[in-house]
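pasting for the record
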Amino acid sequence: MSTARPDHPVTSLKTKQYSHTHYLVIGLALAGLWLLNRDKSLLFHAVQMLIVMGALTGLQIVLRHRAGIVPAYTRLIVAKLVLVGLAVAFEWLLEPETSRSNAVVAGFLVVLVTALGPRLDRLAADRATLRGAAGQPLASSSRKD
């Protein structure tokens, strides 16, 4: 049993579960941060989330470099900016409609990060693999993403 191959279904299933769990924890942390500051202004939320996302992006880039992976910087940054923008816009739209807009946005963050995070990572990895298979160097591809 201990001689599992890397392409074995059990191994890939564990990877998928870890990936979703990893993103679930991140989503819950972001939602908790959003809820902890529910009495603050929307501008405060935006700035705070951008700072947290900037730190997470920096950490993600460093960890991927240590693993020998050249991350797509633009994709990482744009994905986090879009997430913050969606959360702020969603809060702004819901605030006049319900007193629980912060809870709705927090749930939205958890679902969005947990559902889309692994898929976007897989998509980026597939594109990098395709570029590498086509003979283009990964670090200096013609696209700057």
